[in-house]
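dude i think i finally got it to work??
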Amino acid sequence: MLRPLTLLRFFTTSFWRSRMRTWVGGVVVVTLLAAVAIYAAFPHPAHDQAELRAIAAESRHLLARYTDRPGAVPKSQWPHEIAALHPANVIVREGAVEITTKRYFDGGSGYGFAPDKRDLGMLPACWSSLGQDMYWHGPC
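look at this
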């Protein structure tokens, strides 16, 4: 039978220490790669004010164009900057435009344009301001 001290000496030899370092290093690398993949899987809003200004201008145009018939905007009619966001859908509501970039059962993630935040479809607490009358919401 092996004594605990003998086992301790066995696992503290340089061979086993190098194996443990390699194993721990591998776990760290895999954990970091997984964290990056998870971070990349969730959409993040643009913060570039020039880009937001362009999206807001196109949203204003959609709002004016679809004022008499709110609803989903066909993909073929998405303006360039909005289409570049690769949205799942674009919906014009009374006083607001919603650009859903990722759909989930809990509302997903996306942009909203509204001169008055209260006109956005979800609860006002779900939206964070990006500037230029543009807002972002994650799952809420």
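The longest helix spans residues 14-41.
im so relieved honestly
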